[in-house]
Amino acid sequence: MDEQYLKYLKLLAKQYPTIAKASTEIINLASILNLPKATEHFLTDIHGEYEQFLHILKNGSGSVRRKIEEEFANTISQRDKRSLATLIYYPEEKMELILKEEENLDDWYKITLYRLIQISKHVTSKYTRSKVKKALPSDFAYIIEELIQEKEEVHDKDAYYNQIILAIIRTGRAKECIIAFCYLIQRLVVDHLHIVGDIFDRGPGAHIIMDTLMNYHSVDIQWGNHDIEWMGAAAGNLACIANVIRISARYGNLDTLEEGYGINLIPLATFAMNVYAEDPCSCFDIHYNKDIYNIHDLELDRKMHKAISIIQFKLEGQLIQRRPEFGMESRLLLDKIQFETGTIRIDGKEYHLEDSYFPTVDPKDPYRLTEEEVTVVERLKSAFLQCEKLQKHVRFLFSKGSLYLTYNSNLLYHGCIPLGKDGTFRKVKIKGKEYSGKGLYDVLESWARKGYYREEGPEKEFGKDIMWYIWSNENSPVYGKTKMATFERYFIKDKEVQSEKKNYYYQLIEKEEVVNQIFKEFGLDAEHSHIINGHMPVELKKGETPIKCGGKVLIIDGGLSKAYQSKTGIAGYTLIYNSYGLRLVSHEPFESKEMAIAKESDIHSETMVVERVSRRRSVADTDAGKEIEESIIDLSNLLSAYRDGTIREKEQ
User: What are phi and psi of 4, to 5 degrees?
Assistant: First the structure.
């Protein structure tokens, strides 16, 4: 035994100071290894659609309903199953309706408590008692524990449980106890949540989603390009700030910034109304949700949309000129405008501009901000840097997130692995050094963290600019297209010049040898691993499938964002990975929370089994299981050290 390891065992001995304590822990850990693998839940490309996201989270992509079916089968009606599921999803709101409508409340309380106890026993069966105990709500911890744990010493169990339930009803605590049970079931039906990128942009409630994730019991996040754009904005990168505001304006979601985050947009609004007072800004229409958007804001929002877009093109131009190593000179377009003719020359071809009114652009120095624009930009930057809620959310993204993750033999990333035409990893220069594959992911993440956390200086500035690079560069693994054709989509009708060609990854992902080399790059077993990513909406109505390469790759962006649903034909894919295998779930659009409660309407979801295991997976088959096995080895070595006298037991 080497000296370093002996030192480690001596530290371990402080936690387990006797043979008895070390032995007990080995027995406990060994028993955990044989428990069924807990359920993982995967979501991606949420894009601010908080109501549908919250509902999917509450129902565990159908996991709650499946538990109800498994437990009750044909013993209760479908109507009762729907009602029980709705109660579990929205306990407080559903209870309010029931209290108004139910005639014999005590009977309802008794029946409902018994049903919730049965479901709770079912969902807690794969966890240790200590883990369940930690999940119990404090007010009802003892009562719930008594009701869901088998007590061998009690002979007449029915009478015992019945007396507890009657006491709960008699003391007027049935409503609160039912709510506690519902949240316990929600908490335990899914053990761990993976968000595979793009929480922000397009939909109206990214801030609500972030608040929810911060309170979720176990979560990790793989940053999408829309997340990194907001992270760059929070770090103070001006180009990222402009992009955040432009997209919020484009989708009629400026309320997310103003009300969700308290960011003052009045300076931008005042500037836009002054400069574009007579401009209809017809190329800068708003793609709004008619159910929540205030149509009276339309004219102002169009003007703000155009104002921030022109500012964005200038700021991006300055960044591209400042960072020639990014290789993005082709995105310098303001200097290609022929102001006299209202045209622009791109790659040797001349195009007519649909809007040629540029009062703030100096043809001799097109990327220079006017004095008024400088003032607006400085005030916006200050608002983003000083926004406590945004900074809290972004710190959470950094603490719980990364550009990629390997977890239980799955490789999670939002976009792609940049590939060449021949399927080899594309080599990308960062700070003069070439990176590819995993190394590219690692170096970009490292610089992003420096851009947010470092003190002011060259490294922080480069890191902030790298966040914009990750957002929009063709070599970025979370973007993965030849260009971000924002300017072309606003000003030019030609579809060809608007085209954003995908990285070769998306053509080659069906080739097993390409996928296997990705697994090898990230240290995973190609026979038992999967790639799970989003970013590119799967157009089901065109016959596309999220299952690639015989099930080795799962692209689970199916249009959870309403902005994509007309394109995909559905309202999102999610993935469930439990002890029986992988289930892909496709969802229909979510009507509303109110309809879900009043009409007990769940999201209609179709489940497809991607992989069913021949042997039910246990904790021993997971990453946590490997750590437990290592702990058992260490504890066994500690036992040996106690028994041969290398380390002395401590008296208790």
Answer: -65, -40
Name residue, tokens 């997130």: 401
Q: How far apart are CA 56 and CA 591, in angstroms?
A: 13
Q: Please state the pTM of the whole predicted model.
A: 0.93
Cα 312–Cα 557–Cα 535 angle in degrees, nearest 5: 35
- Strand, coil or helix: what is 408? coil
DSSP 461-495: HHHHHHHHHHHH-TT-TTT-BS---HHHHHH---H
* Beta bridge partner(s), residue 628: none
Q: Residue 285 and residue 302: Cα distance in Å, rounded? A: 6
| Residue whose pair of structure tokens reads 């339930």 in the numeric block | 165
Which one is predicted more confidently, 339 or 595?
A: 339
- Is the confidence at residue 153, as pLDDT, over 60? no
Cα separation, 320 vs 314, whole angstroms: 10
SS3 of residue 399 by DSSP: helix
Are the CB atoms for 619 and 32 separated by under 8 Å?
yes
- What gap in Å lies between CA 419 and CA 173, rounded to an integer? 60
Q: Using 50, 70 and 90 to split pLDDT, how confident is the model at 556?
A: confident
What does pLDDT average to over the chain?
91
Q: What are phi and psi of 597, to 5 degrees?
A: -80, -50
Dump pLDDT digits (tens) for 430-460: 999 999 999 999 999 999 999 999 999 999 9
pLDDT at res. 151: 61
Neighbouring C-beta atoms of residue 570, cutoff 10 Å: 21
Structure tokens at 9: 């065992």
Residues 6+ apart with CB under 8 A from 437: 417, 425, 518, 521, 522
Q: How confident is the model at residue 145 (pLDDT cuts 50, 70, 90)?
A: confident
Q: Is the pLDDT of residue 152 over 60?
A: no
| Angle at the Cα of 549 from the Cα atoms of 545 and 550, rounded to 5 degrees | 85
Backbone φ and ψ of 406, nearest 5°: -105, 130
- What would the DSSP string read from start to end of 517-574? HHHHHTT--TTT-EEEE-SS---GGGT--SEEGGGTEEE--S--SHHHHHHHSSS-EE
- Longest Cα pair distance anywhere in the chain, in angstroms? 94
For residue 345, list its beta bridge partners. Answer: 350
Query: Which three-class secondary structure string do you get for 326-345?
Result: HCCHHHCCHHHEECCCCEEE
* Strand 192-195 versus strand 40-43 pairing type: parallel
Helix (H, G, I), strand (E, B) or coil at 83: helix
- How buried is residue 432: exposed, middle or buried, by Cβ count under 10 Å (0-12/13-18/19+)? exposed
Work out the number of other CB atoms within 10 angstroms of the CB of residue 594: 11
Residue 260 vs residues 206, 303, 387, 563: alpha-carbon distances, Å = 8, 22, 11, 20
pLDDT at 85 over 80: yes
Residue 456 burial (CB count, 10 A): 8
Angle between helical axes of 50-59 and 63-72 (0-180°, round to 10): 30
Torsion of CA 520, 551, 549, 57, to 10 degrees: -90
Query: CA dihedral defined by 58, 60, 65, 70, rounded to 10 degrees?
Result: -140
Cβ neighbors of 393 (< 8 A, separation 6 or more) are 207, 210, 214, 234
Two tokens at 34? 């044989």
Q: How many CB atoms lie within 10 A of CB 69?
A: 14
Q: Can you tell me the distance from the alpha carbon of 605 to that of 379, in angstroms, rounded to the nearest whole number?
A: 46
Token pair for 440: 């590219």
Q: What angle do CA 436, 193, 121 make, to 5 degrees?
A: 150
- Distance from first CA to last CA of the chain, Å, rounded? 27
